[in-house]
Amino acid sequence: MGGDHLIVERDGPVTVLTLNRPEARNAFSPQMLSLLEDAWVDAEADDDVRCVVLTGGGGHFCAGADLKAMFSPDEADPHGRRLREDRDLAWRALLRHRRFPKPLVAAVEGSCIAGGAEILQSTDIRIAGRSARFGISEVRWGLFPLGGSTVRLRRQIPHCRAMEMLLTGDHYPAEEAREMGLVNRVVADGEALAEARRVAGRIAANGPLAVRAVKRSVQETEGRPEEEALRIELEIGGPVFASEDAREGTRAFAEKRQPEYHGR
Questions:
Q1: Are 18 and 56 in contact (CB under 8 A)?
Q2: Is 23 considered catalytic here?
Q3: Which among 171, 183, 198, 213 has the fewest CB atoms less than 10 Å away?
Q4: Which residue, among 84, 82, 78, 94, has the nearest Cα to 27 in the 3D structure?
Q5: Catalytic hit among 37, 109, 118, 195
């Protein structure tokens, strides 16, 4: 499903989205962004989808935007027409103007540069192959990283590391990205997707109401004063305890069995 530039695969409660322009190191195209927008909407609306994995095909994650395709689109391409008619669509597809409510795991091999590193910052858990490389290189070409990096990166890794990445445009190996906190862990080349699927499976086995409430609380309390944030946390987390899932979870714990959650 999904068309040429994006592959959408369902694996039980996990959806895997694969950026699929390997000849261009999976650089963003109008078609890819259009299909990503639809994929996010579908995954959010489907209660049976409990976790999403984002990856790239052909040994790379994403080399950023295909500037030629984005700024000189094919006039006959319906995806390019859709982007022209809906100016916010690209930002939603790139998760700049969308807070995706379900857990999102990234599996990174090869290049994760510019827009690829920017969409990475909207993911929750990140697995990298050993040869992966990361960079936000817009300043090298006189451009600005408008995908959210000047806001999000400094909140996710130490200030001085974020500023070095943003101001030099340098590329960093996977182990250094792990050391600075940009990715969770590094695995052997070719194994990032398998590890991301394993992590997604663990998440999907947990209570879906609880998982979504945890992510929502993290998103909605960011940057707020502690007293206000704790009030919001209580408003979001409290109702989880009244759910059928919570009762099933506590019964399963007492009976020493795996719980069967239904998202109610």
A1: yes
A2: no
A3: 198
A4: 94
A5: 118
